[in-house]
Structures are given as structure tokens and as C-alpha cells.
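tl;dr need the bound structure. longer version: we got a ligand (DGJ) that a collaborator sent over and nobodys looked at where it sits. i said id run it. heres the input, straight from their email, havent touched it
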Amino acid sequence: MPIHATNTSWVIETANTAYAFGLNEAGCLVHRYWGARLPSVNDYPPPANPAAWSSFNRPAQLTREEYPTNNDQKFIEPALTVVFADGVRVAELQYTNYAIQNDALHIELQDTYYPLRVTLVYRPLVGYDLIERSAIIQNTGQESIAIERVFSAQWHLPYGDDYRFNHLTGRWLDEFHIRREKLARGVTVTESRRLHTSHNHNPYFALDRGSADEDQGEVWFGTLAWSGNWKIAAEVTDWASTRINIGVNDWDFGWELKPDTRFTTPISFGGYTAQGFGAASRTLHTYIRSILPHGDTLHKVLYNSWEATFFNVDVESQKRYAEIARDLGVELFVVDDGWFQGRDLDNAGLGDWWPDAKKFPDGLKPLIEHVNGLGMDFGIWVEPEMVNPDSDLYRAHPDWVIHFPNRTRTENRSQLILNMARQDVQDYLIEHLDKLLTENNITFIKWDMNRTVSEPGWPAYEGEQREIWVRYVEGLYNVWGTLRQRHPNVIWQSCSGGGARADMGILRYADQIWTSDNTGGTARLAIQEGFSQVFPANTMEAWVTDTEPNLPVTFRMHVSMCGSLGIGANLTHWNADERAEAAKWIAVYKEIRPIVQLGNQYRLQSVQAGGGFSAVQYMSKDRGEGVLFAFRTHIPDPINPLSLRLRGLDPLSQYTVEGFEGSRSGAAWMQTDSLFTLKNFESTVRRIRQVG
Ligand code: DGJ
């Protein structure tokens, strides 16, 4: 029974974890436990009843509330702050009742005076070992209530001030750096204020006690299904109570909760493991795969012409690239930026989503038919949220962009952002993109977003202006969701100048993420390692390009074979040997892709740790087959051989590993070192096979 409920006590259990809370003697909804599942429901500690420590430290401050507001004397990060119509700025919530609906526990809280109802929703994803949390804020009265902050959850950890905050940070071309930092007393914030999820931080947290590694140690982790401004406020109180607030960012946020309306937060996910960061990632990977629109569908090897041609797209040259790509074994040919009306450079065309009359006088069909005739699928790039001032769309609707009156409309890459919160903008995009997909045999769309926000105004809106941050994302989801529903066979890729829109919100619409605009092989190893903390390999689009031309083609191929393989190089510049090498590895990739894309991933050697090596292993879910990739990026000092212990094998079965003599037990491969001698920029791929 995953939800154990009484009138005062609630325990949410998954296969291996548990989260418990209950009412204490003061009637306050307090946290009790988050960790390994215990044998009996009675094993979880009772709610604490903290006494006042002094007149400066009242019980409210010491109580670990599930969803605190700012009443009493707490001085901690509240999960919810509101202003009532009469100007009162404090909500006092009291538990009223609970219900179990659709496998989720709903805890109802009611303000003691005002018509404000809060429902906390907890859903155990039992087999996935994750718990979903969200909150619904409802106005049951006659006057509006202003919401100033509304987090999805406050996740409490066992008492202690010795936590390490593991998170992902970076910048454009350099996303997904893993940072492991001691959590200081007070509040540590990671966030996005940029309208998209951001290159700079990802809404992911993992807390450990300072000693977890890939294979062992307690880790409490989580993320948020949201593709706009978000915030994580990790707090260590002066009473060594550590908690994670996660949700929509309250920076410049406001929401008018009108009478009889509700605000539902995005879903936050939380998980626990005692098997280190590797197990935490595999838990997220398995669940993310289950929510992808196309589930376990294997991704095709694609070619994308962006880095070969940039905006210089025309039918004849694209046909040429398609022919070479087909000869290498590519299965999906994607035309990137530059195909639509007026798009010769980045200063014009965005918004006019029909083929450029000069480049494609007969539309896209002749090219698509050629590509299909070669036996490949056809895909295309769009950037729906954007408009260039030099476009028919902007000339007709200059008021459709995000802007303030009397303020500069700051351009970035010569573009402005369409206000996706507006229904007319959503309708326009649905109409034009639907037409594009209906009239052409397009099976893959790369949806890009290439700038961050400025002057976040919505002059035409008469309500709370600061709702734009949330309504924009809802509009984005509406457009994407409608198109996906109308064209269910299309595979969508989420791109935002690389990996700036990588989150569990967008993965309900997109099957893949464009990991980074940095396609250099060595940089990619690090970016991919960070990406894999949260996202599975099938969502990780990885191209082989000419960015680091001195890297061996083999090395570059191997790097990209660790995800969803694509080629983005200028193939007309590749000689026969290079093409043959690429073709060879594409063939190998097709054999191993079920293991890479859908298997369990084990990070054996961290390149971000700086030792000059990277190694990653993938195992099929039944542990019958695997593949190991190892890379050497530079000569470390001292020069060590790469010694690895495999992971994820059945200890009692016999396995062979390509390049090593004979078979050995899984236990032997996992408990003894296997040595790999790699020269600079050398890489290797080894198949692992269960043989008995
Ligand atoms: C940014 C993307 O990340 C690139 O791959 C490419 O699609 C360009 N935009 C096109 O403008």
C-alpha cells in the first residue's frame, strides 16, 4: 500500500523509499521522515513537538512544516506568501481533511479566517522510487488574493547541517558543470530569471552528507517539471534543519488569484537512494523515459546541416549533403535554420514560417521527396517563440512581442520574443506550424529558442503584469501540446541555444534535448557527463562535427555514440577514409543503440574530475549485454593507466569484454581492475556480453 493515511499521520512509500509527515500536538502539519523504506508503517518517527528555546526562538521557528507560510515567528523560507484584499500579508493555514484520488494523497489546508484553501498533492511513483509533489492554491471567496510566492514543495532532509549541495551550473557553450559544495547556513539559491530553464543552472538538486560517490552514499535528489523561471532555495536553519524549496521563481512574480479560481504549481519530483549519485541518475533516467511522448522508441541517426552551411540553405546543396549522409548510414536528414522566408542571416525572417521563395521556389516538397527517396526521414528547424523586426509578422503585429511602453525593446541576435501568453500569438503559431506539418512529410522538428528575456512587459494585459512569467510557459505548452496532438508521429527536439531548455516539463512534449551548441568532442564529454546526472542518453542529441577537427574521427564518433547519435559536420570536406570511418561507427551504433539509449548508465570515470579520462558504461536492463566507452583527453601527471571496474553485471553470470581474454564472472569484472592503455585523444568501445 503506497499511501498509509490516518487522520493525523501520512506515509508515502515507494518500492524502496518513504516520506512521512503528520499533525503534531499543536495541529501543525510537520515533516517526519524521508529516506529508506522501513519494514513497518509504525517504524517512522512521530511528529516532533518542539518547545520554545527562548523568547527569540519560538516553536514555529523550530517546527519543520510541510508547507509553511509566513505566519508566527518562523524567519525561514516560506513555501507560500499571499496578500489578501484588505492588505493582510500573512496566511495562517490549518489542516482540515485528506483524500486519496487517482493514486495521490491530497492534504487540505484552510486559512483560519480568509477564503484561501491549499491542497498539497503527494503522488508516489512506486516502481520508479520517486514522489511527485505539487500544491493547488484556491480562492473560495469574493475578492482577489495576490500570490507573491508559491513553491511546489518544501522537501525536508534528516536533521543536520553537514549537507553537500550537488547541482548543475554553466553558461552558453558550457552547460551542465557538476558542482559539489558544502551547504552553508542560511539560504543558497539557484534559479533562472531568463524565461527559459537556462544554460546557467538546471532545476536539479542532490544532497549528500559529503561522502557519497557514484556507487554509494545517501543522496536526496529532485527536480522540477517547469520550463520557465524557477528557483531552488536550499536552507540550513540555525537549528540544523535542512530543506529544499523548489518551484516557480518568486522573483518579479505575481499572480492575481481571482474569486473561484485556482493556481496549480508545476510538479516537483523527489527521490532517495543509499547507492550514490549513479543510482540517483538511473532513477531519474528510468522515470524520464516513461514520460517521453514516444517512450522507448529508438532515435534515428540524424544529419543536421547547420554547422556545414549555416544560413546558406538551398535545394541542391542540401540534396548533396543528404546523399553523402545516406551513404554513411544516416536515417534522418534535418534542415536547420535558414530555410524560411527572408532568412539569409540572423537579422530577418523569424516569424514567417513558410519556405523562402528564392531558396525553395517549389516549396520544401522537392527536397523532402529527394530525402525520402534516399530512404531517409526529413526534419526541420523552427524557432516559434521569436520574431525579427524585419519580418512580415512583426510589421503586422509589433504589439505581439514582450515589451514595455516607453522602454527600449532590447534586441538580441536581432530578435524579439513573441509573447506566448497571448492567445493570438498561440493561434498564429499553431496555424502556421500545423500547416507546415500538414503539407509536408516532416517527422522531426527541432524547436529552438535563442535569446533570453528583457523588458518583461505585457501592456495589453489588464491583470497582474507579473503573471507573464507563468502564462508564457503555459502558452508555450499549449502551442507545443496542440501540435503534438495533431501530429503524434513527429519527434520533437527541445533546443535553446544548446541545453537551456532541459527540464522535465518540456520532456512531456519533446523526446530529445539539444545538449549544447558546443560540439567539440572533449568539451562534450564533460557536458554529457553533467547532462547525464538528470537526463537519459536517449534524450541527449549528440553530433559529430568539425569543431575540433584535429580530434580523430573515431574519438568524435565515440563521444556522440554515448547519446542519440547525429552528424553535423560538413561531409563534403571529409575524405573517403573519414567517411568510411564514420560509416563503420554508425553501423556499430545501430547495433548498440538499444543498450545506449534505453539501458542503465554507469559513469565509471569522471572527466569533470579532471584526471584526463572519461569512461561510461551502458547495460541492457536484463544485464545481458553492455557497452563500455573510454576516452583519454590529455596526458595526466603522473601518467596513470586507466583502470576500471565494471558495474551493473549479474555477479554470478559469466561475461566477456571485447579486448580481454576469456570470460569471467560478473563479480570478477566488478571487483577487480581492468586496465586500458589509451594514448592521447584515443578512445575505445568495448562490447560486454553475458555468455553463461
Ligand atoms: C542555436 C542552435 O543551438 C544551433 O544548433 C542552431 O540550430 C542555431 N541556433 C540556428 O540558428
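gonna send this back to them w/ a short note. The domain at 3-291 is CATH 2.70.98.60 (Beta-galactosidase; Chain A, domain 5).
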